[in-house]
Write a structure and sequence with these properties.
Number of strands: 19
Number of helices: 6
Largest sheet: 9 strands, mixed
Shape: globular
Order of helices and strands: EHEHEHEEEHEEEEEHEEEEEHEEE
CATH topology of the largest domain: 2,3-Dihydroxybiphenyl 1,2-Dioxygenase, domain 1
Distance between the termini: 55 Å
Structural class: alpha+beta
CATH class of the largest domain: Alpha Beta
Number of domains: 2
CATH architecture of the largest domain: Roll
Helix content: 10-25%
Length: 359
């Protein structure tokens, strides 16, 4: 276990690399250590978030981030059935994202008449495990974003935290909105962001999705040994040498005692499409892995496109992983009809793989 000192004590190492991910060039990834081909070479297409009010949650992304509506409409019977909900259920979806983005989108869904729905991660503390913890977006003018988020009824786990790592200077904060939806914002003050990141005024599209996990190493093996993803970062446990505020909300006096370890993977090196897992060691929270399903509220799924769902499913099974939900056909507008199946991580988070149904 390594200790760090100075301004970013307790946030250097794993977390700081995660926060400064935009500084990494593609060559910094070590690839898949086992030589396994990835299940997909595409970034994730979209995240699915279950909410009680589409427009209320969308205001954060639309009014602050300038996201546009890509599609809006009722959930069809096939979509309802695909989530394993009763035939009496109905619902509506709203797909949003920055102008010009065709991946890294956010699909808000509202399920009606679908039975009891509860938060997947009530309280969403970082030491509680299971499901997805947050989306991550790059931001500009964090102070103004913070003020606008509060105006819209969102809150934060901590004040904006200033960090330094190498030559990078950042502001970081976790925003929490209706239904416990969390968005982590990162503002890089200097140096400038890589040119490969599309220009933006206040917010990019999400580039990473994070889970809080029971065992980082086991979670990491799922992504690398089953999905064949490449490694952006996978380091030893870290703990602060001096008490230091941190965005994950660990009490300041415990940052010298509570280590954490992180892993970040992606199908192929790049600035988007990342999946992250963090294990906080020594704080015992609750595990919510059994609540990561519709119609419960929160970040419900991440969707990746693949060339062929049948061969993808067979590869995952051959690598020793169970399929959580079989292939089914549904309308996934505006893409049209797709075939889709689910797997679950060790901590219950849903990952869906889809392709277009052949004509």
């Amino acid at each position: 276990m390594e200790r760090r000192t100075g301004l970013c004590a307790g946030l250097c190492g794993a977390l700081a690399l995660w926060l400064t991910a935009t500084a990494a060039a593609a060559g910094n990834a070590d690839g898949n250590a086992n030589g396994l081909p990835p299940i997909t070479t595409s970034d994730w297409q979209e995240t699915v978030i279950s909410v009680t009010d589409l427009d209320r949650t969308a205001r954060f992304f639309r009014e602050i981030g300038g996201y546009e509506v890509k599609w809006r409409g009722a959930l069809g019977e096939d979509a309802i059935a695909a989530w394993g909900l009763p035939a009496t259920a109905t619902g509506e979806a709203l797909l949003i994202g920055p102008p010009g983005y065709d991946s890294g989108l956010v699909r808000l869904v509202r399920f009606d008449n679908a039975g009891r729905r509860v938060p997947m991660r009530p309280g969403a503390r970082a030491w509680d495990t299971g499901c997805y913890f947050s989306l991550m977006v790059r931001m500009k003018d964090m102070e103004a974003v913070y003020a606008d988020a509060i105006r819209l009824g969102w809150w934060t786990e901590t004040p904006i935290t200033y960090l330094e790592w190498g030559t990078s200077k950042l502001n970081v904060v976790i925003y929490r909105g209706p239904d416990g939806v969390q968005v982590q914002g990162y503002e890089r003050l200097e140096p400038p962001l890589p040119e490969t990141i599309p220009d933006f005024e206040r917010m990019t599209g999400p580039f990473n999705v994070m889970q809080m996990v029971r065992d980082r190493d086991a979670a990491y093996r799922f992504f690398t040994d089953v999905l064949g993803f490449a490694t952006f970062f996978n380091g030893p446990a870290y703990v602060a040498e001096e008490p230091t505020p941190m965005p994950l909300g660990i009490p300041v006096n415990l940052t010298t005692q509570i280590p954490y370890r992180a892993g970040i993977v992606y199908p192929t090196p790049g600035e988007f499409g990342r999946m992250e897992m963090i294990e906080i060691m020594g704080l015992d929270g609750r595990d919510y892995a059994d609540r990561c399903h519709a119609p419960n509220l929160g970040i419900l799924a991440v969707r990746f496109p693949v060339d062929d769902v049948e061969s993808t499913l067979a590869t995952i099974q051959a690598r020793g992983w169970a399929i959580a939900a079989p292939i089914r056909t549904l309308s996934l507008e505006p893409r049209g009809t797709v075939r889709l199946f689910d797997v679950k991580t060790l901590d219950g988070a849903i990952i869906q793989f889809f392709d277009r149904t052949p004509e």
